[in-house]
Amino acid sequence: MSFSRLRNSSQSRFFRSGNQADARYCIVSVFTSRPSINMTQMYDVVKLVDQETKRIIPTTVNLTTAVNTKPYPLQDLSDLKEQEAFVVRDILYCLQGNEGDYVRFSKNFNEQDLRSILEGPDYRIAKNLDVTLKDMTNRLLKYGKMYYSLTKFVEVYDSQFYGATMQRLCNEIRDFLKEHDQIVLELERRFMMDPHFSIGILNQLIEESGEKMRTLYEIITSLNEVNRSNLATVDDVFKTMLKTIKEDLKHDDSLYMQTELNNKTRIIKGGIILRIVQDKMERIRGDQTRFEALKKTFDRISLPYIEMLHKWLTFGKIDDPFDEFFIVEQSSKNTLINYDSKFLLRKNYIIRQFEHRELQRKVLLTGKYLDVLRCLPVDIVENDTSNHKIESLETDDLFFYVEQKYLRANKLVTELFMKGYKFLTILEALKSTLLFSNGVFLNDFLAHSMSDMLRDKSKASLSKIERNFEKTFRPQLMATPRSKLVGNLVNINVQSDNLYTFLESILNIQQIDAEEVFNSSDLNSLKRYLNKTLTKNTAEVVISPLDNYLVYYLSLNIEFPFPLNLLLTNTIITQFQLVGRNVMITNVVEKLLESSWKEINYQRFWCFNFPNRSIRKWILRLRYLHSNIKQFVSAFHLYLSFDVIEGSFSEMETQYQHFASTADSDFEKYFVSLQKWLNTMMQNSLLMNETLVQISRRMFEFVLTFHTFVMSLRKNLILLDENLFDQYASKLGEKQFDPEKNRERVIKMKHIINEYEKKFESSLNTFVQALNYYSRLESSSFSVLAGYLDSILKNRK
Asked: Which of 114, 336, 549, 719 is most solvent-facing, going by the fewest CB within 10 Å?
């Protein structure tokens, strides 16, 4: 059968177009489909285009007449031209994603399996076809496979469920398929009309659209592979989380704290699609024609992403209804809690332009700053003097655009905090309040509350403490204009943990082997490792008999409203509290020593002229030891108040003034400077070193024990002298003066004073050695305190 005979055959049913079915739908193509070789019932698959939505709607129509469509046996065709005519007709079918008489879908192709139809069918060719024709047919059939795959991809993924970017990609594919249909329609026309048309000409003409089809097919193949790999199990998510942490910890910044740890997603959309297209662009960059064509496609499908980026950088708003952007807003009933984690980076949604961590940081912070301003009566649009808006992610202006938006957001939020809220003034008020740098506030409060400081916290009157605070501390804060805001918000409470026990339990945490963590095969293995570590740490916490003293639990607390709580976070306030509690304990101990100093120097029994010289000498030794202990506490207090708090605050204040004078200051520097100041104070206050915490704890326990001992000696002094005994015998309940017993008392008292002196010198010497050792390893400020304490030791010698 020749080409002309095939063209005139009544069984030839190819694309008949241009006839309108009704006012809304237009027939764009018709072709005959035979689902099986021996099938006698033919179907016309009619493609209608919806004039309103421009979307192609495939439908199937039964032919009214049943015809025997069993193909003519190829072995009976001796003319190669006739074989070519039949196979070209089938190829034209296949180029529309169908099968013909001599070219059928592979037996391995399953039209019910999603993976199979998205990959596209392989074809099997009639075995009696000429070898030369078969080779050419195989080359052309790859376009049929790709056409089928592209068509099914659009059918599956053209949905809002997969996001706007995916829909735009599907639209690009659909537009290409329309162009391809027109090419095939023209090829069919030539096949019907041109007697010289051949399979070679068909191959040459189809190559015109073949390159773009191949590019689109490779993109959707990559998307399908990513989609399959993202069907993650719990262990997959765990491994991905560890990988994310491990990668981020390589960098010396805090960006990993704002990264979504589970990068796995069950749906490919947004940034993932754009990244795959970009990867393809990178691979074909050497082919300028293909590259430019794909770049135009990328620009069109990335428009939703560009719009989301613009709204985030201009208004601090996440307008991402389909979760496609690389910044995600965490859902929370209270957005004021954990604001640091309100917006997180989704690393697998990051496109090539934002791979650099510094750029990620700037994009994230720009929107976060503007989001703060959106919650306040600030007109963000009015403050946007730049009308610049990018139209492509591939433009060189992108980095300039981000930088411009970043500087604008920094300027706005800096003015809000530093000028509007006078943030440095608030920090000064916190220093005076939570860190007790203004001693007057604390002195008045302690003057009314000292009797409760050494009581068991469960027996102390909290209501009395609160009344004393309201009576003395708060009024003085409110009387100072700079401290009014803090004065309104601050309150006093009893913490659940002893300061030293709390610090030791934290500092005693065993250092975790990062490699062992990262090598954990699954979540259960990590849990077993962490439980083993925590169990060991819990067992090592030592409980002191003096741990229940109220002074160890008392603390000032403050909660700032939005937006001040963005800088003055719970973590920041906790650091203030820890340093302040340490200062309060030192103040209380110093006040107690002042009272016992007055006792041993001015109370009449201590000033009595005892006839026994050894008693007088013992009293002098006790006063000297007390003086040394008081010097130790005063030196420690002086070190905390001036060398640690005031010294480091003045450095931070200088930094803030420098930032304010810099036009393009980075607002994050203010927070970093604040955090650095607090970290420095925590470290220099001996609160971040387990050994120094334990030593200082034992020193203060020793001081409190010594104070209690001194305050209990009045009765012993009366019993040591007969005249005093006669005056106060009735009050003491003693029957008679006993010289023999007194000698035993004096011996015991000498022994006790000897033990206290040895203990003090030994403990102070250990403290000085530890300070000198850690001053070389951690902080040179320790050597300042070591110098103060060493002078006390030298004076004793």
From this structure: 114
